[in-house]
Design goal:
Blueprint: H1 9-15, H2 21-30, H3 35-42, E1 53-62, E2 73-77, E3 82-96, E4 101-110, H4 112-115, H5 119-135
Antiparallel strand pairs: 1-3, 2-3, 3-4
């Protein structure tokens, strides 16, 4: 669902004979992955550690050439070292330092014009959700 390397639709189609770029595009347009679905997909694979921790990170997906995406807006990109048009995403990542593995367990789209929330408010919501999951035993040590 997320990767620090090139995993665009075109890249995927170029490296997988079974799928064309257009087929992937049609699938992704119809698919809506919620933060709850991300948690449900990650939960069975988590390797929890007493030394584990959460990292909250924000990134900007460059959409400089897209004018019809409502949540795309001008914002600072640390990668580009300048302001670009893009979609802001705030992620919550669980890190297991023992196994050196990590999992995205929650995310939010930064769209202050639509929901009025700051990135810090999104982080607060995700931390609160993680603590609630701990309280009900969904996020517990084996």
């Amino acid at each position: 669902m997320a990767t620090p390397v090139n995993r665009t639709q075109t890249y995927f189609a170029d490296h997988c004979d079974d799928f064309a770029h257009d087929a992937i595009n049609r699938y992704l347009k119809a698919d809506r992955v919620t933060s709850a679905q991300v948690w449900e997909a990650a939960r069975p694979h988590l390797e929890l550690s007493h030394e584990g921790y959460l990292i909250f990170d924000d990134s900007v997906m460059d959409k400089s050439h897209s004018r019809q995406i409502n949540v795309a807006r001008q914002q600072w990109s640390g990668n580009e070292k300048r302001t670009i048009r893009g979609i802001g995403v705030v992620t919550c990542v669980y890190v297991n330092p023992d196994s050196k593995k990590f999992w995205i367990v929650d995310y939010r789209i930064f769209a202050p014009n639509q929901d009025g929330k700051t990135k810090i408010e999104h982080v607060h919501e995700m931390l609160k959700r993680a603590l609630e999951r701990c309280a009900v035993g969904e996020f517990k040590f084996q």
